[in-house]
Design goal:
The protein has about 425 residues and is an alpha+beta fold. The chain has 3 domains: about 100 residues, Immunoglobulin-like; about 200 residues, Immunoglobulin-like (Sandwich), CATH 2.60.40; about 90 residues. The chain is built from 6 helices and 24 strands. It has an 8-stranded mixed sheet with strand order 15-14-18-11-10-20-23-22. The radius of gyration is 25 Å and the shape is globular.
């Protein structure tokens, strides 16, 4: 009887957690709302795309007179869905994670006024890769317009520049409403300058880009042109890579990477830095004593108040990619038999309150161990995906490392 009760409780818990999402798999409902006016938007096309299948079209429907829509597809509910609505000639994207059967799709009136947005910060990450130096940059863009409007221009409304001799690889955008990277087409403007045509909705948007530079003899001199003036510049490099330049100051470590800062540049200015070394993998700092040491090193140097959030934000777009793994773990838990050992004879005299206290202490101990292990796995997945984005890991090695992390997660659940 004792063994049956925990199994019954676990079954009820799993049903409560997973029955809702799986019962609604295949259907997605929502409403298209204009946040500038607060009104529902009728009769607009709503496209559903699959980010995990190369943006394959899952379905196309139209909102009704009240702005409502319903779409059906077997893939809905089992993987992330990107919802795209074209309004006033501009595509607005909304991300729907697995298990969310209803979502509001936000659109805005469109403005062409460049003052609608302000570029808040600029981060540059360098990663050696053989005879190439990979550069990954991120701009934080804010739209605080009142009333709320989206900034967009067909000819390109966000410009950026890459160093001389650089080859642009990829440009993506991530907004708070999306929570995931969306690839963008680049518009070449000449002399190393590019632009994207993207609807910057109210709130924050991160523009991320990557490029390759020649890196002969594991050294390069890189001239970073400023696309926007008045931004504090942060430079990041792995351990083992030296980074020097006029006005560049070391500012400790974040996520096992060395961080440097430089005062804001003029809009037409540039910063020349020297990069050398092959680099090494960042140390694991998933909350252990080392993390505390790094915190002390930051306190001794110049305070870093922009880089940590920008780097840490990269973790959250990875969550949707782990949903399938956690679903698999839930199945493993549901299949695992719960065994309750018979209590020793001398324990019969213990009081019910002492039994409850021991049980509570055991549960808390398990929770702490699982939490620590999950934090460590989260940091490992973050570094793995960062290497993939920067192009410093082959597809074969990425697949092998990802499989290893997934096995660790399954073993954690089983254990």
């Amino acid at each position: 009887m004792k063994a049956a009760q925990p199994r019954l409780f676990l079954s009820i818990l799993l049903i409560a957690l997973f029955a809702g999402p799986f019962s609604l798999a295949g259907t997605l409902q929502g409403t298209v709302v204009n946040r500038t006016t607060g009104q529902a938007v009728p009769n607009v096309d709503v496209d559903l795309l699959s980010p995990t299948q190369g943006m394959a079209l899952l379905g196309s429907v139209k909102s009704d007179a009240q702005g409502h829509f319903t779409a059906d597809n077997p893939a809905i509910g089992t993987a992330p869905v990107l919802i795209r609505v074209t309004y006033q000639g501009v595509g607005f994207n909304t991300f729907s994670p697995p298990g969310r059967p209803q979502v509001d799709v936000e659109v805005f009136n469109v403005s062409k006024d460049a003052k609608t947005i302000a570029v808040d910060s600029h981060v540059v990450i360098f990663q050696p890769n053989g005879d190439k130096l990979v550069g990954a940059e991120e701009y934080n863009v804010k739209n605080n317009s009142q009333p709320a409007v989206a900034f967009f221009r067909t000819e390109g409304n966000f410009e950026f520049a890459i160093p001389e001799h650089g080859t642009l690889q990829r440009v993506t955008t991530t907004s708070g409403a999306m929570g995931m990277d969306v690839p963008q087409a680049s518009i070449e403007k000449g002399k190393g300058r590019f632009a994207i045509a993207y609807a910057f909705r109210p709130g924050e948007t991160n523009v991320r880009l990557s490029y390759e530079l020649p890196y002969p003899n594991n050294a390069a001199t890189v001239k970073l042109p400023a696309a926007y003036g008045g931004m504090r510049l942060l430079l990041v490099a792995p351990p083992g890579v030296t980074l020097t330049g006029d006005g560049v100051t070391a500012a400790g470590q974040e996520q096992g990477m060395n961080v440097f800062v430089h005062d804001p540049l003029a809009a037409t200015g540039a910063l020349t830095v020297s990069v050398a070394g092959v680099g090494s993998a960042p140390a694991d700092n998933g909350g252990g004593p080392q993390a505390g040491q790094e915190g002390n090193s930051r306190a001794q140097g110049q305070e870093v108040d922009v880089a940590p959030p920008r780097i840490d934000d990269l973790k959250w777009p990875l969550v949707f990619g782990l949903v399938a793994v956690f679903a698999l773990c839930a199945i493993l838990i549901s299949r695992k038999q719960v065994v309750v050992a018979e209590a020793p004879q001398e324990a019969e005299a213990t009081t019910p309150s002492s039994k409850k206290a021991k049980a509570a202490a055991a549960v808390e101990e398990v929770k702490e161990k699982v939490s620590a292990s999950l934090d460590s796995l989260k940091e490992e997945v973050f570094r793995l995906e960062l290497r993939k984005q920067a192009g410093t890991i082959s597809q074969e090695e990425y697949a092998r490392e990802k499989a290893r992390v997934e096995k660790l997660l399954r073993d954690l659940v089983r254990g």
